[in-house]
# Entry
Amino acid sequence: PTGVADSTDAINAASAAAHALTAGTVVDPYDTKTLGGCIVFFPAGKYTVSGKLTIYENCGFRGAGNRSSVIYSSYNGNVIENEPSVTYDAFGMLIEDIGIIGDRTKTSQVGIALLRAWEMSMKNVLVMNCGSHGILMRQCILNTLVAVTSQRNVGAGIRITGGTVSWSDATATN
# Structure
């Protein structure tokens, strides 16, 4: 967490490892998803990234505070993007106590992009200086946002839209 080396690969490896450990026995009230995943912890520090960070269902990213654990991104795309599950919704994610500082010159940069996220929580998150939207939520339901700050982004602070089948699909499904 020094900000010197690119942390993209290390964070994505930790996220994939957390995802691999998410098998559990508890299911949600609709009996459709398994709950009880793993958290990738970001100790206080500066994390420089040059690519997309993937968060998976039943997993989370947690830092030591939104101004203590800060991701600095030069990526011209979605900085944190969820991986939609094969069964339609990405369920039970957490993003907490993390800051994301973007680069306003990157016109396609979105701080946090969620596609079909279901019952996810975002708490004490700061997203700023992104070249597009701070937070983009497409076809997301039953989510909780607490103490989320999105400022100085070129696009919308938080943009909530209808759904699409994938990030590359431009045709809304609702």
The two ends are 41 Å apart (CA to CA).
